[in-house]
Amino acid sequence: MKVSLFITCLADQLYPEVGESVVRLLHDYGCEVDFPELQTCCGQPAFNSGYQDEAREVARNLIRAFEHSDYVVSPSGSCTGMVHHYYPYLFENEPEWKSKAEALIDKMYEFSQFIVRVLGVTDVGAAFPHKVTYHPSCHASRLLGVTEEPAELLGAVKGMEFVELPRKQDCCGFGGTFAVKMADMSEAMVCEKAACVCETGAEVLVGTDMGCLMNIGGRLNKEGRPVKVMHLAQLLEEGRRA
Amino acid sequence: MAEGAVAGAAHDPAAAAIGSGLKKRTKEALANDFLRKAVAFTTDKLRSGKLNATDEFGDWEAWRERGRAIRQHTVSHLDYYLGQFADNVAANGGSVYFCEGADDAVRVFMEIARRKQAKLVAKGKSMVSEEIHLNHHLEEDGIEAIETDLGEYILQLAKETPSHLIIPAIHKNKRQIADLFEEDAGRPFEPDTKTLAAYAKQKLRNYFLEADIGLTGCNFGVAESGSITLVSNEGNGRMVSTLPKTHVVVMGMERLVPTFEDLEVVLNLLARSATGQKLTTYTSIVTGPRREGDLDGPEELHVIILDNGRSAQLGDPIFQDVLNCIRCAACLNVCPVYRQVGGHTYGSVYSGPIGAVLTPLLQQDMKEAGTLAYASSLCGACYEACPVKIPLHDMLVQLRHRKVKMKLTALPERVAFKMYQTMFGNVTLYKLATKSAYYLQKPLVRNGFIKAGPPPLSGWTQSRFMPMLPKQSFRDKWAKLQAELAAKKPAASGGADEAKGGGAK
Fold this sequence. Notes:
heterodimer, A: alpha/beta, 4-stranded parallel β-sheet, 12% strand, globular, B: 4-stranded mixed β-sheet, elongated, disordered N terminus, disordered C terminus
């Protein structure tokens, strides 16, 4: 099975190790992985700030990048959600681009969604002897409907002590430019989220979106908390090597 | 006021600059521990109550869809149902007034008040009368208006406006309320719910009997009968609508349902979404003024139907559905922004996610009120909670787009997103820009983090560390990674060849 990676701009620039984990895991399951060089970003930063024309141009670039792919897998529920939820609207007045967008949607999956729903794997044979909690990202769960998949994958990890995150359904306060534009509101939200993470006593916070994890992790770092922040793909891949 | 009481939370929405004051009000709210604790405590209770009630209800999603369909149908055929409703109110012996703006509605009400030589108006809870700032006008004319909803009564004593759609005094704790009652009664009060409620009850009872006019809102008008539906948990709604000789209803033009069958659906959705109740304690359905032989009821019934920016949404492909709102406040109760800052921060009558969408639309003011669209992280909790499925998260993004189209965003931001389009629309430029960023960040990095940055990065670093850009991006590492994989055979059992349901979604 040929799988193209959509690494997302944030993971490409700040968290290359997340992409590496995704690649190693997919390769282990026999996927022939490629990385279309043309890709940059899904356009979400501009779209969510109201700059739809600017977002549309960046979206075209992404569509072009994956035109010849069979499957597209991304380690971000938010960016995958952007494509699934907003691309048809962005191109509603351009039938040709709209059908290209729909073709991309049909083959594009968030990482855990792909592992569970396409590969049909819930137990990747990982062991991770640590106390772990999980933050469900808003866009992964609400825009994309990815709720069960991460839970199933985590549930099969051996030796792991899983603690439910209190108030897990509340947004961490990232929201892209919201974190900068409405810095005070965002701060109040991330402080509460970080406090909830600490309350669990977990050593590791795991998630499916580096945006949220950068936000929560950044707060935990500033507070000097010893909680490690990991993408689900990192945890699973590290757990397989253990 | 005793220690712990909040001073200065009062504001006049008409005078406040909604957008430019947003950050200042946010800071004030965040510094107010009492407000934050009270809001978090009560919204948590309402939220879990709602979840229990909807679970118990059974197929909540099917009810939600039914609610959405009823509201969408009604709003799409609003001209027809408004006509039917008005005809039926008139046939029942009531009077109907269609008012385009707040001024018209105030004028109509004042004319009725003058004709009745009213000195005292007893009010049931009505957001629309807040919307048109009716109390302010009554006061100017020397007419006393008493709020009879307990929460509203507390706010009237505190000289504040509501900070929640259904729990107007959500931001106050018992001690603060006891302080207000102490001031009013001139004697000490224990901060105990029963004692406080008993005092308000005893005070308000006389007002019901003495009032010349009873003023209420309208949760739903039923078009097929011309009835007004009022829901409350305190019973004040039916006191106000039956005891005074004149009953005046002020309602938004969209607050209709076609039939009683539809009313059943929306009342179920409203009570469960708002408070987690199956139905509210009192549901009053008023069909016309007192008829011959009736034991009680007003001699006159006047219904003021307010447009005030609503009809401008009709036919709008993106925003019409905002008129489907049934004012249950479920979106406020789940909103993580509302939770932190409370209702007054929004600077308008309607707060929370629905307020952030509704206020700029009703006021047709993208410049000031439109700024509320940024008071959201776009997490989508509001849409998930909405019993009639209004896509508030999408509407917030569309309001921002409207602001951009009207060139109401700051020039540096417009330039930045043009640059974003250029750099992220072309991979060569993207690589160049990100490489430069790696070197540009260097003076800011301490121990692998950016801990303090210049604006706009400072917005981030005030509360969080920023990871530094590593020397090699994923794409820089790709070639090496490919070589690593080529040397290694796939290890996992199962694997892609045995994949189940490939491509199936």
